Amino acid sequence: MLERFRKDFPVLENNPGLTYLDSAASTQKPAVVLEKMDHFYRFDYANIHRGLYNLSERATASYEAARTRIAEFIGTAVPESLVFTRNATESLNLIAATIGEQIVHKGDEIIVSVMEHHANFVPWQQLAARKDAKLKVVGIDRKTLELDMAALESAITGKTRFVCCTMASNVLGTTPNVAKISKLAKKHGALTVFDAAQFVPHHKLDISTFDPDFLVLSGHKMLAVDGFGVLYGKPEHLAAMPPYMTGGDMIENVTIEKTTYSEPPQKFEAGTPFMGGAISLHAAIDYLENIGLDRIQEHESALAKLADEKLRAIGKVKLYRKPEHIHNGILPFNIEGIHPHDVATILGDMDICVRAGHHCAQPLIHFMGEMAMVRASFYLYNTEKDVDRLIAGIQKTLEVFHK
Fold this sequence. Notes:
It is a single chain. The protein has 403 residues and is α/β, with parallel strands linked by helices. It folds into 2 domains: 3-21 and 292-401, Aspartate Aminotransferase, domain 1 (Alpha-Beta Complex), CATH 3.90.1150; 33-289, 3-Layer(aba) Sandwich (Aspartate Aminotransferase, domain 2), CATH 3.40.640.10. Helices cover 40% and strands 16% of the residues. It is built from 14 helices and 15 strands. The longest helix is centred in the last third of the chain and has 22 residues, at 293-314. It starts with 9 loop residues before the first helix and ends with a helix. The relative contact order is 0.16.
């Protein structure tokens, strides 16, 4: 188990009574990540790509070193295929607003899964509406919670321009077979867009094994600070795409008559970027790989399975994942006769942090026949004591509502 790493997280050390079970929303930050950012702003800060002086050159080197490190982490040898954004949401909107506008036309099709976070659903829904294209939504097996691959295969046609899918559901924890999805899409000439925001904090990622056209992630889901995201795109796509925003640091030449743009990734990084965010993600990746993603996945899965077992023993708790399908720390549930918001409120009063609501995934929640769910999400800094506190909190909730 990984209990010894809990002390690395200042929020948990400074709030000793806290049980934080909302890492699927955002993770806590280890001291080493905060210290690396602090060091940068204290000793090495200057604007990048512009200054012809040592401080700016050091800042630029740190920023670009982060790009190289993240590229290595996801399994690409081309750092220039990574565009830095504010979050995974901006990355997905960038794709839809650039190449999406270029290649989607009236009568074309865009495929998404019903499991998508709104960030990988709404941009495609809106693009389809603008272009008079068709949005196809592929469902899941209600028993296994796995993506319906037969339905996906039937949905893809010669008119399909994009197949967009999460790599790990933020509600159910389901991890679709992205290699098979990619193969099906390529068979029909469709581009793939994978949302890896919930996948990369918990699982090893190697894009060479499934060859995505695009992939996005967010730093704050994996121990880095908020406000920093990454878009991976195949170089040939990035080269053909128009800029998403225009301004400084993304131009080659500006005259009164016209403007020409830098090569990717600078073409998509207008203005002064969040340098500290890049450095924080570099440090977070080093921290995660030092522990080992396999160990993290094993640890959090064990905690989720333990919580599942104890919740089943209580009764009156509806659980959506079968124990054999739990392979990360995400555990959705509901309590019979009690609204999820009431559950989360009572737990919150006990300093037990869970999420309740539609989890930015309303199509999925409705598909599951619910209006809302409670979600406990475990991560590397959680312990069996956190499980025990969750169970005690659920028992307290039952006592309050069933006096």
